Amino acid sequence: MSSRRGRRYREGAVLSLLVVSHFALLGWLGDQRVAVRVAPDLMFLALLVYSIRTTPGRASVAGFIVGLVSDALTPVAFGSGALAHTVVAYLAAWGKAVFFAENVLVSAGFFFGGVWVRDLLVLLSGGYAGGSVLVWQLVWWSPLKAVATAISGVTVLLVFRRWLEVRFAE
Known about the structure:
single chain, mainly alpha, globular
């Protein structure tokens, strides 16, 4: 029992560190529009790490909460972030049983795909952009942010391998 409790505390510590780092990074970047657009989304990364370790229902609730926090920070189209985060968290929790292997490249692709799908859902449901602006966002800015988040995610998994009990296939 204490082993399970210790595991929860370690996972909670890593997830909390990611969320605090997310806001510290945004505060440090300030109003640098380009840097903020490509900075890794550490709060979403924490959601994905949590989602692959829990049930789809719990992941959906966590995604909804993270989405509301995200929407509160940028309230242009309130609700689009909550919808996108909920859907991606549910799919992440469900998908881990279907195709999620313990491999560094698969993990990187998983994080990349999660960020890109989330951005697609936010853009479409929020009505942020249309035409060439939508294409530019999905072809240039979203992949850059997804790559930065994927690199950060793999780094987190490698650094906290023992705490998160991650076993990468050799």
